[in-house]
Amino acid sequence: MKKLTNIFLVAFLMLFHLPCSARKHVGNKEKGEALKEEILPIGSLIFDSGVFPMHRAEEVTKWEKARGAEVDVISVFPSRESWTSLLSSWFMDDKRIPAGFQGTLNIGMPLYPRDGNLEEASKGSYNAEWEKFGRMVAAKYPTAYIRVGWEMNLNDWYYKATPHNAARWIAAYRHAVTSLKKGSSTFRFIFNPNIGPGQTGTEDATDFYPGDAYVDLIGVDAYDWWPPYTTEENIAYHCERKYGWDWWLEFAKSRNKKFCLPEWGVATANNNSGGDNPAYINFVYSWLKENRKWVAMECYFHEADAYIRSDLFTGYNPEASAAYKSWMQLLKK
């Protein structure tokens, strides 16, 4: 297999010889309702573009300077130990969000806090708390992207969805969204599994789809993972496989929803990844650009923690950083 190492060669291959093409989604779900009235990208790029800055305002400023484009979206993760901690607004304070930020948030939300449970959530017992959270966020970010129960098809999450709890999981999701909407009718709710087959006993995460009335966007989290995005063959595999990039895009189209990429990044600390991998960066942005009519938002997961080391512009992933920066001009409106 041909390894793609040269940044310029990779960019050429991705721009003019994309290894994958859209596949028709096969399923028995009815056509989705009409697209929600679109909120146009506020920045200079063709879709909303953002970063998880490790909950540090200064990292946003550094990121914008390094890539040469303002950030439209900042990823945040509220505390999830209890309702008291979840209802704290620390993730929106001036230590986490830089002064003058004009964009919005990409919020990763559990279906309920760690000291809660699915049974109560499915009965609507936490609706008052969700409404409080919605009003708290809406006071500053009424158009926030909200990922309720994100990555529900991964086994490690305490709020995971399984064949045994699917009905209750869906009911809990609907209660959360209905209550959050009381804070703002312009929140954008993302149905957000991890890419690939589910790991909780059900391969197809659409089994947990809560219905079009409770979802505005279809999103997946997709890191540089086995097989690494280092060869044309591996990239084609990720793109064309069932529950891969094209499959989820086609599902979004079948629901008449836009697609988004709320988390993505290299994973240099893990042996299953491609390391400092410009081919992965170039694939992601070429695919998003190719499908820009259906893409609403992407947020890079910039994390210097030892478990992943996905950080860019810190000296740790120089090739991936260079590839990322090169795309900013190519993605201009």
Tell me about this structure:
The protein has 333 residues and is α/β, with parallel strands linked by helices. It has one domain (7-23, 45-330): TIM Barrel, CATH 3.20.20. It has ten helices and eight strands. Strands 1-2-3-4-5-6-7-8 form an eight-stranded parallel beta barrel. Helix 1 runs parallel beside helix 9 (278-290), helix 5 (127-138) crosses helix 6 and helix 9 runs parallel beside helix 10. The radius of gyration is 19 Å and the shape is globular. The model is unreliable at 1-19 and 21-30 (pLDDT under 50).
If classified by CATH, what would the architecture be? Alpha-Beta Barrel
Distance between the termini: 36 Å
What class do helices, strands and sheet pairing give? alpha/beta
Any idea what the shape is? globular
SSE run: HEHEHEHHEHEEHHEHEH
Write the layout of secondary structure elements.
Elements: H1 7-16, E1 48-52, H2 57-67, E2 73-76, H3 83-86, E3 104-109, H4 118-122, H5 127-138, E4 145-148, H6 166-180, E5 188-191, E6 217-223, H7 232-240, H8 245-254, E7 258-265, H9 278-290, E8 295-301, H10 318-330
Parallel strand pairs: 1-2, 1-8, 2-3, 3-4, 4-5, 5-6, 6-7, 7-8
Produce a short descriptive summary:
The chain is an alpha/beta fold and 333 residues long. The chain has helices at residues 7-16, 57-67, 83-86, 118-122, 127-138, 166-180, 232-240, 245-254, 278-290, 318-330; strands spanning 48-52, 73-76, 104-109, 145-148, 188-191, 217-223, 258-265, 295-301.
Name a few traits of the molecule.
single chain; 333 residues; alpha/beta; TIM Barrel; 10 helices; 31% helix; globular
